[in-house]
UniProtKB/TrEMBL annotation:
Pfam families: NYN. It comes from Candidatus Azambacteria bacterium GW2011_GWC1_46_13. GO terms for molecular function: RNA nuclease activity. Residues 10-157 form the NYN domain. CDD domains: PIN_LabA (cd10911). It comes from the Bacteria. This is NYN domain-containing protein. Transmembrane segments: none annotated. InterPro entries: LabA, NYN.
Length: 171
């Protein structure tokens, strides 16, 4: 199925930062090039909102990264890392991202979900049933096959590593 992308489409981009970060790190020992992914996702269409869902750790070492996202025009929603008795750590934005996508959907033609998390299948199905075009961008090897199938279009970031990844410099 070929997905139509035209200049008049209003798009919203919802970025599951943890999902992309861990996939890039585990698969390729690299970082995500959010600038290139954002440019590819927008594809000369009308960007209404781009929102990244991020986790703040105790050390705060991620603050420069958050600032870089903001400089790219990506709104960041920050949640504190929860640490439970016994050391279990939890940081989950799935519900927040889903609620924002549903809330903003009436003012969008296209929803771009940057995540491979299969938990988003019901969201994708709901949005498509509302007449929205839903595009998913993630790393193919770590993306849910059901999520890929549920979307109108899937971009596998692994297919152009030069463009979508930032590799550590070898000294």
């Amino acid at each position: 199925m070929t997905v139509i992308k035209h200049r008049e489409q209003r798009i919203g981009i919802f970025i599951d930062v943890q999902n992309l970060y861990h996939s890039a790190k585990n698969l390729f020992n690299a970082r995500v090039n959010f600038k290139e992914i954002l440019k590819t996702a927008v594809a000369s269409r009308k960007l209404i909102r781009a929102v990244a869902y991020v986790i703040k750790t105790e050390s705060g070492e991620e603050q420069p990264f958050f600032e870089a996202l903001i400089r790219l025009g990506i709104e960041t929603k920050i949640k504190e890392l929860q640490i439970f008795i016994g050391g279990l750590k939890k940081a989950d934005w799935d519900v927040g991202l889903a609620i924002d996508a549903v809330r903003l959907a009436p003012s969008l033609d296209v929803i771009v979900l940057m995540s491979g998390d299969g938990d988003f299948v019901p969201l994708v199905e709901y949005l498509r049933n509302q007449g929205k075009q839903v595009e998913v961008i993630a790393f193919g090897k770590t993306a849910s096959s059901r999520l890929k199938e549920a979307s109108d279009d899937f971009l596998d970031l692994s297919e152009d590593q030069q463009k979508f990844l930032i590799r550590p410099k070898i000294r």
